[in-house]
């Protein structure tokens, strides 16, 4: 499903993935935003898409694409959104990606204030509440994301535990 609105106060087009990468790795954020894209070939990304496809049989609106920018896994009655995660851990990256979708929808006048992170492999979901404080925090994060993306060169690679499963690993360390 594709929906288009206009949102004037966004300076840069920021996707949910960019918010996620901001927490995971700032270099990954920069590489992604500059379209140095290896993610589509990553097995983990393919697995995520597969889990997503099998998780919501017969419920809500699936893959709601807004402004050709943010792709929400599922929306229920425009009151609750879902984001499917393949990992086993509740991470700030996932929480803030979901909150970014809520933030974006609220800026469009849709007064959603909660979402669910779905972990199909664990057969559990985690409710995330969006509070009034989150808007200010989110805007600070958006501002930082913009600053990173505007840099002419990417942040230096730093080896982390997630690097070996990152689609950019060879690009960063070979
Ligand atoms: S391999 Fe590591 S340093 Fe490079 S983009 Fe991925 S997470 Fe970041």
Automatic annotation (TrEMBL):
What is the main EC category here? hydrolase
Superkingdom as given in the UniProt entry: Bacteria
**DUF83 domain residues:** 15-173
Which UniProt keywords are given for this protein, alphabetically ordered? Antiviral defense, ATP-binding, Exonuclease, Helicase, Hydrolase, Iron, Iron-sulfur, Manganese, Metal-binding, Nuclease, Nucleotide-binding
**Is GTP-binding one of the keywords UniProt gives this record?**
no
For activity, the cofactor(s) needed are: Mg(2+); Mn(2+); iron-sulfur cluster
Return any one Pfam family short name: Cas_Cas4
Instruction: Tell me which Gene3D superfamilies the record gives.
Output: 3.90.320.10
State the EC number(s): 3.1.12.1
Alphabetical list of InterPro entries matching this protein: CRISPR-assoc_prot_Cas4, Dna2/Cas4_DUF83, PDDEXK-like_dom_sf
Q: Does the keyword Membrane apply?
A: no
Q: How is the cofactor bound?
A: Mg(2+) or Mn(2+) required for ssDNA cleavage activity.
Q: Which PANTHER family match?
A: CRISPR-ASSOCIATED EXONUCLEASE CAS4
Looking up NCBIfam families in the UniProt record yields:
cas4 (TIGR00372)
Stated family = Belongs to the CRISPR-associated exonuclease Cas4 family.
Reported function: CRISPR (clustered regularly interspaced short palindromic repeat) is an adaptive immune system that provides protection against mobile genetic elements (viruses, transposable elements and conjugative plasmids). CRISPR clusters contain sequences complementary to antecedent mobile elements and target invading nucleic acids. CRISPR clusters are transcribed and processed into CRISPR RNA (crRNA).
The protein's name:
CRISPR-associated exonuclease Cas4
Species name for this entry?
Lactobacillus intestinalis DSM 6629
């Amino acid at each position: 499903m594709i929906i288009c609105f206009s949102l004037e106060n966004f300076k840069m087009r920021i996707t949910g993935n960019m918010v996620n990468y901001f927490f995971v790795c700032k270099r990954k954020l920069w590489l992604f935003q500059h379209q140095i894209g290896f993610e589509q070939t990553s097995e983990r990304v393919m697995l995520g898409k597969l889990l997503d496809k099998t998780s919501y049989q017969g419920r809500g609106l699936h893959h709601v694409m807004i402004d050709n920018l943010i792709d929400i896994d599922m929306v229920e009655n425009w009151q609750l959104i879902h984001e499917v995660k393949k990992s086993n851990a509740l991470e700030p990256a996932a929480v803030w990606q979901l909150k970014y979708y809520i933030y974006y929808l609220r800026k469009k006048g849709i007064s959603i204030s909660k979402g669910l992170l779905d972990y199909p492999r664990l057969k559990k979901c985690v409710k995330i509440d969006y509070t009034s404080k989150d808007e200010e925090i989110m805007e600070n994060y958006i501002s930082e994301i913009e600053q990173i993306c505007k840099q002419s060169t990417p942040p230096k690679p730093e080896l982390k535990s997630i690097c070996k499963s990152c689609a950019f690993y060879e690009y960063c360390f070979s």
